[in-house]
Amino acid sequence: MIEFHEVHKSFGGKHVLQGVNLQVEKGESLVIIGGSGSGKSVLLKHIIGLLHPDLGQVLINSKDLSALDEEHLNEMRKKFGMLFQSSALFDSMQVWENVGFGLKRHTSLSDKEIREIAVRKLRMVGLAGIESVMPSELSGGMRKRVGLARAIAMEPELLLYDEPTTGLDPIMADAINDLIKKMNEKLNVTSVTITHDMKSAFKIADTIAMLYNGVIIEKGSPDSIKKSQNPIVRQFVEGRAEGPIVIEGIEA
Question: Which domains does the chain have, with CATH numbers?
């Protein structure tokens, strides 16, 4: 469903992606791991067409995103759902309006119909009865679940998760992981998650790919990543300061 072919991307002389090759099969749950600043978010922005490669190609269902005009790119984006790291809810809108935001913009459904869909999606993420609440009244975990309800509101083919467990306590983070796994299975969607939370990665992934120095250095099942002999992968998975990954500004 998604293909990266020798993708390069630079910003102000800094070469962030240096020849990324990656494939995501239809129905697969891929998790991309890597340190802060490694380019994970840049990869995600290429998938949704917010960025285009300096060199190489990004294909979605065999279509080169760089070759699409804005109209066709927007049509393709209607098939995507995204859970943002900060949830990105509109504080001036009630919960149901947040969930139905895409439906309001891209369909001719009435507010009554949109609200009914929002209520169903909220039930799916375990949030029945909060449709009239304002986002400011919600906990962090509830905001994440509202964001997920919005991501699935238009019944997407592809779900994108940007650091879904950031800012949550361990119990709520695990509940979000369970919910992501449930949504992926129940909706039969393809999903791409970027995270540095290894517990989350091992729980929700069919496949894990590690981005380091602008390329994918290893890709495989959660079990194969756990058993990797690559010292860079092992250091990251085990969360050790000592190893080939150097932390800038900290002497060994």
Answer: 1-74+192-252 (3.40.50.300)
